[in-house]
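Bug report (template v2)

What were you trying to do?
Predict the complex of my protein with D-ribose.

What happened?
Run completed; filing so the output is reviewed.

Input:
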Amino acid sequence: MKIALGCDHAGYDIKQPVVDFLNERKIDFVDFGAYEIDRNDDYVDVGIKVAQAIANEEFDSGILLCGTGFGIGITANKVPGIRAVPCDNPDAAKMARAHNNANVITLGGRVLKPEQVAPILAKWFDTEFEGDRHLRRINKIAMYEKSTLNVQMEHGGRTVIFNHPLVQHKVGIIRNINTSVKEFRELVQEIAGLMVYEITRTLPLTEIEIQTPIEKTKVKTLEGKKLAIVPVLRAGLGMVDGILSLVPNAKVGHIGLYRDPETLNPVEYYCKLPPDIQERDIFVLDPMLATGGSASAAISLIKKRGGRKISLVCLIGAPDGIKKVHEDHPEVDIFIAALDSHLNSHGYIVPGLGDAGDRLFGTK
Ligand code: RB5
């Protein structure tokens, strides 16, 4: 178990008892600060850092301290996936775990005496989540969180559907049979570029100090995490440049699959991935998510070669394809610009846009 610990100046007085408790129990933890009392620090900053680290699954749970436990708790609860509960006695800590499966406990340095800390933490650590009806309620909270992010939870996975007006406008144009190859190609790149904002939303940031023309200040910068984009040949190629225009340092792999005419199963004919694929956040590009067969096979291939953090990025999806990918790969997030209603008897998405490869390359 790994714990993230954070506090502001008003929680600082009860930080040592928390550290002593964790050390006594030999619980692994990382201290996100504050490391000294600075009356100008704001619980919001450390609260968000700790909550994001837990939401990104870098830690199992967190302990946050401020004057009352309230402000830092309110802050942490703004981060999707966080269930932070302020506790001022052991019974509250027990219920926070048993019924709410709180993944963050918040304590108040101005309301608790140092000796009150250990019994509260002990109850929180030693109580099991009861699940059952409480799980149903927690899942409802998660569903609400996802809905505010335009995310649907289906078949165990996350599907993010873009309802941005600009994306919808451009998708409307590429659906049109009269759109030229040139325009189609340009629009697919533009839509892929617009999708980058959402698909990279959870990339971790770090702070660096820089000098502006006015003064020194701290700014956010991407933590230097490695990205890979992997188009599924050939239609996926149409999205590559749009994504690279915003993340130019991403490495590009390629996967080629064809459908065996007899078994109808996807068969690999080409696969070249960056050698350090296991360390990268991977975005698989496949414009049309119809039955989901080739997207799912492409993801399996990447996993076989060591890929771990994979997302699928498509232009248009059908419910069958989403279901298939989420069933085969429940941990994979799917990003689609538009969700259509169904597949026709030839396996084409309806209303769709036809064969994306043909329309991109003018082969029909
Ligand atoms: C800081 O003075 C204090 O307001 C803060 O630590 C916290 O108690 C807010 O809820």
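What did the reviewer find?
The two ends are 56 Å apart (CA to CA). The mean pLDDT is 92.
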